[in-house]
Amino acid sequence: MTTSLSTIDKVDNGVNVTALLGARESLQQVPEAAQFKWRAACQWLNGTHSRSVIGNFFGLGAEQSRSKTFAVEADHPQVFASEDHAPTPVELVLSGLASCLTAGVAAVAQRRGIQLHSVKATLEADMDIQGILGIDDEVRNGFGAIRVHFDIRAEASEDDIKALVAQSQKRSAVFDIITNPTSVFVTVN
Amino acid sequence: MRFATAIIIGAGQSGLAMSRHLTDSSIDHVVLERGEVANSWRMERWDSLRLLTPNWQSRLPGYAYDGDDPDGFMTMPEVVRFLQRYADVSGVPVATGTRVTRVRHTEGGYEVSTDQVSWRCRALVIASGACNIATIPSLSAGLPHQVTTLTPLQYRNPGLLPDGGVMIVGASASGIQLAREIHASGRRVVLSVGEHVRMPRTYRGRDIQWWMDAMGAMDVRYDALEDIERARRLPSLQLVGTPEHVTVDLNSLRKAGVELVGRLVGLRDGKAQFSGSLANHCALADLKMNRLLANIDDWVRTNGFNERFSAPQRYEPTDIAPDARLGLDLSDAGIRTLIWATGYRPDYSWLDVPVLDRKGRIRHDGGVVAAPGMYVLGLPFMRRRKSSFIDGAGDDAADISSHLRLGLARAAA
After folding, report:
1. What is the pLDDT of residue A7?
2. Is residue A146 domain-shared with residue A161, that is, in the same domain?
3. Are residues A18 and A71 in the same domain?
4. Mean of the pLDDT values across residues B131-146?
5. What pLDDT digit, counting tens, does each position of B192-226 carry?
6. Are residues A78 and A103 both part of a single domain?
7. What is the pTM of this model?
8. How many domains is chain A built from?
9. How many CB atoms within 10 Å of residue B68?
C-alpha cells in the first residue's frame, strides 16, 4: 500500500507530486487558505459568438495574478443557424471534464509510481434539444448522460489503470460539478 | 468526592479490557458506566443485528468465546452476556448507572463529575465508544416534515416503521443490512449509495475476517500507514452476520428489488437529488475488493497453502442500472421514512478539556490524548486496524495501560 518517495521519483509524468503533497499538508493546518475563487468574464461578440477572458483568481489567502490572460470563445454550429466560430458551450463543458479527469489521471499515476505513456479520453454526451428549444417541458436542457472512454498506455496492470481513472473521478472538481447540484446565483446590474 | 488512581469511562469491551490490565498492574481504578455493562450493545442496536465478526474472534485478555459455534455470529443478547460474564469473572470494579456529566483538568489529574458521586483521578481512560451519535448530514434540514427520520441507533425492526416506503441513506454495514430486512418486510426501499467497501462474507471457504486475521491485516499498526486519517475515515465493510453466512452486496440487494441511487446530494421542495457518481463509487469498491482478494491469493500462493483452500474466485462487477434516477419526489414515491445510515461519531459533550480538533475529533497519538494522563480507546484504527473490534480491545488496552503505568511512575519519581 505504501508508495515510497523514491518510487514516485522514478516515474515522470510531469506532475510535481511532492509540491502537491506539501500543499495538502500545509492546508490541513490552515484550512482558510484552501478557500479559492475562480473567475471568468464573458463578452458578447455577435449572434451566439462570445469570448471569455480568464485571468486572476483568489487563493491561499490572496489575489493570485497570472503573467497573461486566456481567451476562450464559444459559438453555435451552422445547424443552429449560427456561424460556428468556436465550439459550443456544452462542448467546452465536455472539454473541461476531459481535461480535469486527464490531469487527475496523471497526478494519481505519479503518486502511485505509475509511468504513463499515453492518455487519451474520448467523450460523448446525449442531448435531446427539445429541452433547449422549449418544445417539451419534461425534457431537460442539459445532458441526458455523458460517456467517457479512456485509452491509457502505462506501465501498470489493467486493474491498476482502472483504479487510476476511478480515483481521478473521485477527486475531480469538474466531475463533481457535473454529477452534483450546485446553486447558481445570477444578478443583473 | 471520591478518588481513584485511574478512571475508565465506559464498560464496553475496551473499558473492560483496560480494567483487566490495570488490575493486573495493581492500579486502583473504577469503571464509570452510564447504564449497564455493554450498554450500547443492549440499548442502541436493532433487533436482528449480529456481530460482523465470527465468534472465535471475540477474544479479550484472559477470556474468549468457548461455545460450540466458533464460526457463528453472536446476537446482541449473546454479546451482552459475553461481556457481562467477562466483567464478572474479571471482577471489574464497575459503577453502573453512573453517567459522566463533566470532566475537567485539576492539579495532577482530572475531576470527573457524574449524576451520582463525583470522582478525582490521576489518569483518565475514555472508553465510551466510537458510535455514540449517528452522523446526520446538514442537508437533512431540507427534508419534508411528513417524512419520519430515524438513525440506526433508533431503528429496531421494520414493524415499528410508519407505513410506506423507506429511503436509506448510506450503504455501509448498517445501510445494507437495514435495506435488506426492510425490503424483505414488503416495503419499497430506495438505497442511496456513496463511497462504500464491498466485501464477500466468505472467500475460498473461509470467513473474510479469518483471512484478514491470518494475513496479519488486523494487526497493522497506525504508525505504519502513510495516510492514517484516510484509513480512519474508511466506511465500515458491507457485511452482515447471519447463520447462513450470506453475502449482501449491491448486486444482491438490486436483484431482490431494492432501488439503488447515487449519494444523496440535495433535498429541496420535497425532492431528493442524487449524485451521478454512482457508477464510479461502485467501480472503486469493486477494484478495492479485487485488490484484497488478489492479496489473499498471493498470500496463499506464497505460503504454499493452495491445497488447503478452494480455488480463487472473482465476483460479478456491481451492476448499476444505466438509468439510475437522479431525483425522487419523496411524496410521489410514497417514501414515509428516511434512515440516516451515514456513520457514527463519539460524544465528547461532557469533556471540558481542550483536546478536540476543529472537527470535534479527539487529538491523540495511538490513543495517547494530547493532555497529560488522558487516554482514549476503541476508535477506528486507533492503534491497529482492529482497534474498534472486540478482538482489538485487548492489545490496545495492553499498550495504553503500560503507557499509563509508566506515566504514573514518572510522576511519582
Report:
1. 53
2. yes
3. yes
4. 93
5. 999 999 999 999 999 999 999 999 999 999 999 98
6. no
7. 0.93
8. 2
9. 6
Is there a domain that residue A187 lies in?
A: no
Q: Does residue A55 share a domain with residue A112?
A: no
- Structural domain harbouring A120: 88-181
Mutate which: B225, B287, B293, B363, vs A, most A CBs within 10 A:
B287
**Comparing C-alpha atoms, which of B401, B371, B411 is closest to residue B14?**
B401
B210: which 3 cell numbers?
479469518
Residue A125 lies in a domain: yes
pLDDT higher than 90, residue B390:
yes
ipTM of the complex: 0.86
**Chain A nearest C-alpha distance from B388 (Å):** 21
- Tens of pLDDT, residues B4-49: 999 999 999 999 999 999 999 999 999 999 999 999 999 999 999 9
Nearest CA in chain B to A30: B358
Handedness of CA B17, B71, B245, B230 (dihedral sign): positive
* CATH code: domain of residue A75: 3.30.300.20
Q: How far is A159 from chain B (nearest CA, A)?
A: 7
Contact A179 B284 (CB under 8 A): no
Cell of B39: 450498554
Residue A93 and residue A83 share a domain: no
Residues of B with Cβ-Cβ distance to A163 under 8 angstroms:
284, 287, 291
Per-residue pLDDT, A13: 86
Helix (H, G, I), strand (E, B) or coil at B112: strand
B371 backbone φψ class: left, alpha, beta (φ>0; ψ -120 to 50): beta
- Domain contains A170: yes
**A106 in the same domain as A76:** no
Question: Domains in chain B, ordered, with CATH?
Answer: 2-132+346-412 (3.50.50.60), 138-340 (no CATH)
Task: Tell which of A87, A106, A133 closes a domain.
Answer: A87
* Residues B226-260 as b or e (16 or more Cβ within 10 Å = b): eeeeeebeebbbbbbbbeeeebbbbbebbeeebbb
Same domain as A114, residue A66 = no
Task: Decide if A140 is inside a domain.
Answer: yes
pLDDT, tens digit (0-9, with 9 covering 90-100), for A61-79: 999 999 999 999 999 999 9
Q: Has residue A1 got a pLDDT over 80? A: no
CB contact (8 A) between residue B322 and residue A145: yes
Tell me which residues of chain B have a C-beta less than 8 Å from any C-beta of chain A: 195, 224-226, 262, 265-266, 273, 275-277, 280, 283-284, 287, 290-291, 322, 358
